[in-house]
Amino acid sequence: MGTDGSGRGYSLTEIFAIKFVLADIVIIAALLFAGPIYAVAITALLVVSVFLVWYLTQRVGSIDDTDEIRTEHETVDPVTTLQERYAAGELSETEFEAKLEQLIDANERAERAGVETEELSLER
């Protein structure tokens, strides 16, 4: 999360506490300077924003990091991609076998030619 000057990270509870203190200050200022209708509107917006932040933190926390999130630097080999497409039903068994055979043949030809295959894609 955020860090203060000492390098310590803020917990989610501390962030919500800070948000509520700042929200109270804004609501009191709205009551004093703008009137009760604006104070109620600001309060409603702040409550909605708290629930939105809570929902998003729960949603992000529930995603399985190993299956669904891949960083842009993580590379997935073409065989794994092919297996995932077959498992998802995008490819029939014959298509899967044909593409796997193509991939194996292309890899063997590249090795014989001394070409590095890490940057190559499965599809043309």
Automatic annotation (TrEMBL):
<dbReference type="Pfam" id="PF09851">
    <property type="entry name" value="SHOCT"/>
</dbReference>
<protein>
    <recommendedName>
        <fullName>SHOCT domain-containing protein</fullName>
    </recommendedName>
</protein>
<dbReference type="InterPro" id="IPR018649">
    <property type="entry name" value="SHOCT"/>
</dbReference>
<keyword id="KW-1133">Transmembrane helix</keyword>
<feature type="transmembrane region" description="Helical">
    <location>
        <begin position="37"/>
        <end position="56"/>
    </location>
</feature>
<keyword id="KW-0175">Coiled coil</keyword>
<keyword id="KW-0472">Membrane</keyword>
<feature type="coiled-coil region">
    <location>
        <begin position="93"/>
        <end position="120"/>
    </location>
</feature>
<keyword id="KW-0812">Transmembrane</keyword>
<feature type="domain" description="SHOCT">
    <location>
        <begin position="77"/>
        <end position="103"/>
    </location>
</feature>
